[in-house]
Specification:
The complex is a heterodimer of chains A (397) and B (343).
Chain A (H helix, E strand, L loop, with lengths): L1 H7 L1 H28 L4 H12 L2 H26 L7 H18 L4 H30 L3 H19 L7 E3 L2 E3 L11 E2 L6 E2 L2 H17 L1 H11 L1 H6 L4 H18 L2 H8 L10 H11 L4 H23 L6 H42 L8 H24 L1
Antiparallel strand pairs in A: 1-2, 3-4
Helix pairs in contact in A: 2-15, 3-14, 4-8, 4-11, 4-13, 4-14, 5-6, 5-7, 5-11, 5-13, 6-7, 6-11, 8-9, 13-14, 13-15, 14-15, 15-16
Chain B lengths: L1 H23 L13 E6 L9 H16 L3 E5 L6 H13 L2 E6 L5 H10 L5 E4 L8 E6 L1 H15 L4 E8 L2 H17 L4 E8 L9 H13 L4 E5 L4 H9 L5 E6 L15 E7 L1 H13 L6 E5 L6 E3 L10 H12 L10
Parallel strand pairs in B: 1-2, 1-3, 3-4, 4-5, 5-11, 6-7, 6-8, 8-9, 9-10
Antiparallel strand pairs in B: 10-12
Classes of the chains: A mainly alpha (397), B alpha/beta (343).
Subcellular location (chain B): Cell membrane
Keywords (chain B): Cell membrane, Lipoprotein, Membrane, Signal
Family (chain B): Belongs to the BMP lipoprotein family.
Chain lengths: 397, 343
Amino acid sequence: MSRFKTKFSAQAVLQALAAPALALLAAFVLSSVVIAMTGKDPFHAFFVMIDFGSKSDSQVWIINKAIPYYLSAAAVAIGFRMNLFNIGVDGQYRVAAFFAAVVGGALALPGALQIPVIILVAMAVGALWAGIAGVLKTTRGVSEVITTIMLNSIAGSLIGYFLAEDKLAVKDGNLFHTPEIPASSHFFLIPTTPDPIYGTLIIAVLIGLAYWFVLGRTRFGFDLRAVGRSESAASASGVSVRRMVVTSMLLSGAVAGLVGMPTLLNKSFSYGTDFPTGVGFTGIAIALLGRNHPIGMALAALLWGFLERTGLQLEFEGYAQEIVGVMQGIIVLCVVIAYEIVRRVVLRRQQSAVGAQLSARGADGGEGEGDDNGPGERDQDGKSAPSTQAKKAGTTA
Amino acid sequence: MRRVTKLAAAVTATAALALTATACGESSTESGGKKNKGVGLAFDVGGRDDHSFNEAAARGTDKAEKELGVKTKEMTAGNNETEETREQRLSSLAKAGYNPVIGVGFNYGKSVNKVAKEFPDTTFGVVDEQSHAKNVVGMTFAENEASYLVGVAAAKKTKTNKVSFIGGVDNALIQKFEAGFVKGVKDTNPKAKVEVDYLYKESDKGFNDPARAKNMAKGMLARGNDVIYTAAGQSGAGSIEEVSKKKGAWAIGVDSDQYRQKGLEKYKDAILTSSVKNVDVAVYELIKSVKDGKPLKGNQTFSLKEKGVSVATSGGFIDDIKGDIDKATEDITSGKVKVPAKP
């Protein structure tokens, strides 16, 4: 009950809302300025975005687009939570989707069997690819930032090598792609009108739940976050840092392996030269924007989809094509900066509050020991709030 | 058990939310105009001003604007784009009443053929890809034949017996350029070596990364290559710039007559010739046919025979070897020489 109280006290709610509100406002103002500078009417732009973005086909489009973004963000966030910067999600999901597509195109099992096989292959390959970076970090001390970036490049070349007619691909016009996955192994669609929503939405929801549960509610998640905040403290309390690094890289890679599944199992049914690239980098922005929070990242992924959907319409209305990219950048920067500002303001206010309490207590001479309930509770609140803030800021910095 | 319930609730809620939202929202397709507004042109990455492939298509619409009085709406693809985005671009053009809607580049192959089925009264065109739908016109070119001819020119002009090819992306289309060029060089000068490299294995960035092309050209020049043929859209500008810095080295342009491109004026004295793909003619013909009420249908092939591809002579740098070029042209059109489409 007191936990609930602490979590939802007016001050805490205000603090929680202050940063996103500040960020949105700043992003709105800055975007307007940028649009105005290109000589266009910013308000009409926002009107177009909201009007077009709320259309039913736009909603479906946005949700479908957000699925891989969310998975990608979750993969990045797993690393973030323990201070690992997995920039390699991009390479991981592409290698994973490629080999999953190869396996899927070669087998002809019943769908109920083949779909899990394809998904498991993707997760295994993604984990393996990310695991290389994890092992290199623990055995040779190589920064995962460097290795994962390089592995992205290697992933591209590896796929390029196999994606040739005499290797694992077939030629279709000007495209090379892996043999198509049989229709029985296509993932189901949620029959909405006018267009269907990808059934792989369920994978994203499951990953969101698992992310929340494993990281927030298990011993493993606690260890992982502990390592993220202080390796020395974690290892002093008996956590094997090496094992945690490798395990979390493997987990991050396994989730990254799922990023290509919505496209593969619901849309393209093969991995071709036109398979989407760059989703791994989008995931970094979305994880930052969603503050590594399972719901925050979902909102961020939807926002990203919304911006991309409406960006095209803006171009159609004569606005510069790059406006949406600029907006995306502004939003991420605003969020990071706003959270930092709010964190500092809150910290300062709490420090002065605690200082005032201490000096008051010093003056009273320990008299208030018994009826400490009111200020004591606030004290606790004060301690827990900045520490969670600091933790979050630490992982995203 | 609790988790399962929660999960089921979450899934149902999401689905229900989407369904309700859908039920009360208007689809954007319902609010489009029906009047024909002119030509909808969707560019590939690099955009209108790539001095090369897209610009060739733009010349076609410019001509149509002038001569047929039609209006054009242009949109451009971004990097790392997905099918969804391309489909949306094409359908918003069709929805708004543009006819024909033309996708420039093979990237639009799938999306044009898909979106066309939703707009049966609109004529769609796609450059570099085949038609798979009734109202789609596929416009393909014999790039290998024009590349063969510039290969002949390169073999005749090289002093070091080393020439090179830079492709934007290692895909089937660009391999066609490579195959033709290599054969042209080898048939003319068996001693000449051709260094072949691609900017990217699989990313469309290859068509708008002039910096990378510049670096690659630098390396090739340093290794003694003195003629560089770049088939990489906008990236080509980078390699042409680099070649222009080295005396005696030649650049070969692609798709448009790059000697005549305003944006490349500074380097034009280094542009030996270009393998021209008359995308403008194809685009213009398509627009005209729609305007006349007799839209073209199916696949249209543009080869050397139909003058769908050609070799640029601007600048007069290849006037001295005109005889060789003409003979090679003759050999190809008569079928005496078969130019491969794959390396």
